[in-house]
Specification:
The structure is a homodimer. By secondary structure, the first copy, chain A, is an alpha/beta fold. The first copy, chain A, is built from 13 helices and twelve strands.
């Protein structure tokens, strides 16, 4: 008996998995982490009103969630002062990235991103056979002008750009992005990943009309809203582009509990303001811990701090291993020269105490 | 300014949406349904232990769910007496169907299904450019021998077969499927959708070794487990086939609450037995209501009853409209001659009272 016939594209894809889950690392080390500071989750959690909404919605779990996330979509439209036809709700930004790549990218189609930017975007591009053109970071920022230049020379159909950036935490003022867009080539879609935008200073998010067919923006309830486990992301774009997702998406893909939780979380903006303040304090605390160890933290506009370990990727990987061995889950950039850094998600005081204790030992052992 | 460049395949796809949600129909009619009996949801709901697990898990919603659904996958493996490497958990069977089609189907690749079978499967096949070959139903059953014959002549890469069938509720004994498989052509994957299997008589699910590369089986927590809103489906297949999904799936696509709820629901098999009994009683009640109105209910092995309205599609569509106007949400097969029927999901006594009241009026008005 012989097996199924995969497509040629599928056969060409690697079997590797983008991220190893912290739970798997815990099983490998035989003990739970003392501090979970690696996945840029928001340990301060969602609004208690969101939790209450989830618990209430559980009684309706026998029903399918609305395939168009009607109520949430309308609430998001009001929140952003756009039309509901400009909003698509999906299974996290990861899910939306997959759908968007599928809409635009056939095998061989050129796509531009930064070398070391979000690996899951690259995973989807490769998964549809797209050809990735990677532009180096410049001074630990994504290089927006170089990305646009590359998209011209490569005739790219899609540019990925995160603001604030992950894994570096750096950002551009929105006005810089708006200015750069004036130079965008025809028919190239600019994908603006704003997963961390709520943590950034006023003015970081560019003003972009929902009539502008050159841009799609993505946001999430996984970060500031503290609901990574709910898998709720959304895209903002032209009505045409948003409608096109209906041709391919998993219409009944949204968890009803997550829809209800996101609705309530969105309404509680006071909680978001408190979260932003807690994250800001945590960033300062991580920066201080880094400085106490002779390390430089990069200024961050996200809910993590990227800390320059001062040498190179080999050294930073040793520091990372040392932290993980001591029960402090952190991650790090994959690509040089950014991989001289480790990336530490914001946490509570107790989490950062574990970090403060483990970091000097990890540094000492890495020498 | 010009818009994004979609792939040729995307441009060729229709903009229509597979199912209109009952909530949208409610908005259109300006009133909620009195009885929600159209989507084959399980109104008897999940185990209270599943609800408790969801409410407990809410406190962890700030974390991403495990990308490999480790705990649930291992529990399912034990439940089915297979290896965890033979189980893939995904965003409902709908999500898994999309992934499977993507693994196998390139534009033009032949796929076989029954004419009038699950539309979401067809949606995914069309979405990846596959060529659908449809075989007529035979006596309101999917015609397994004709499906296999067609897969030979069309050189199909994939056959879709649901047992029990939706929308007709009919089924084959598992031994018939095992026997038919002996005639399956080389390299054609047999996709066995067992969404409704828990409601069917003993022996309906065929014995198939997880070493058998010809078959993938799909199951769900949406039906017997009463958790449609949670979006948890799973596939059982060879380790090779299961692993291949890792090349393309949304690794962080599962809701953490849903994973926790499904774990607890799986453990409470006593609740499932009670649900099966309630569904059985409801099937009898729907059959009686049909008979009181001079209509014949098809014998059903699922949580719905398909009722032959005795004339043709036009007549049945009028009956359906009449029920919906009266606040009774039901659906019907899309394709002749099955579309002489309407499909009524099992419900509680109160739900069926609405049906009993509305059906004679709908029939009278349809004449």
């Amino acid at each position: 008996m012989t097996g199924p016939r995969y497509t040629k594209l599928i056969e060409s894809l690697p079997s590797s998995v983008p991220f190893v889950a912290p739970e798997q690392m815990e099983r490998q080390r035989g003990a739970p982490f003392l501090a979970r500071l690696g996945a840029n989750e928001n340990i301060f959690g969602p609004s208690p009103k969101a939790l209450e909404a989830i618990r209430q919605a559980a009684d309706n779990i026998w029903k399918y969630g609305e395939p168009d996330s009607h109520a949430l979509r309308h609430a998001l439209a009001a929140h952003h002062n756009v039309g509901p036809e400009n909003i698509l709700v999906g299974e996290g930004i990861d899910g939306l990235l997959g759908y968007l790549v599928r809409l635009l990218i056939s095998p061989g189609d050129p796509v531009v991103t930064s070398d070391g930017a979000y690996p899951t975007f690259n995973y989807h591009v490769s998964g549809y056979g797209g050809q990735l053109h990677k532009v180096p970071y410049k001074d630990d920022h994504e290089d927006i002008q170089a990305l646009i230049n590359k998209s011209k020379s490569a005739k790219a159909k899609l540019i990925y750009f995160a603001n604030p950036d992950n894994p570096m935490g750096t950002f551009y003022p929105g006005a810089d992005i708006t200015a750069a867009l004036s130079d965008l080539p025809e028919n190239c879609l600019f994908l603006l990943d704003e997963a961390y935008i709520e943590f950034a200073p006023e003015g970081t998010s560019p003003e972009i009309s929902t009539d502008d067919p050159r841009v799609i923006r993505m946001r999430t309830f996984s970060k500031a809203y503290g609901m990574a486990g709910a898998r709720v992301g959304y895209a903002i774009g032209t009505a045409d582009l948003i409608r096109s997702f209906d041709k391919i998406r998993n219409h009944f893909g949204m968890c009803l509990l997550s829809q209800a939780g996101a609705m309530a979380a969105l309404e509680d903006q006071e909680w978001i303001n408190q979260t932003i303040e807690k994250v800001s304090q945590s960033r300062t605390a991580i920066t201080d811990i880094a400085a106490q160890n002779g390390l430089t933290a990069l200024p961050s506009a996200a809910n993590f701090v990227t800390v320059d370990c001062g040498v190179d990727g080999d050294f930073a990987r040793k520091v990372l291993s040392g932290l993980i061995e001591q029960g402090v889950f952190v991650r790090m950039p994959f690509v040089a020269p950014q991989d001289r850094c480790i990336r530490i998600s914001c946490g509570r005081e107790a989490d950062l105490e574990h970090l403060a204790k483990a970091l000097p030992i990890a540094l000492e052992n890495a020498k």
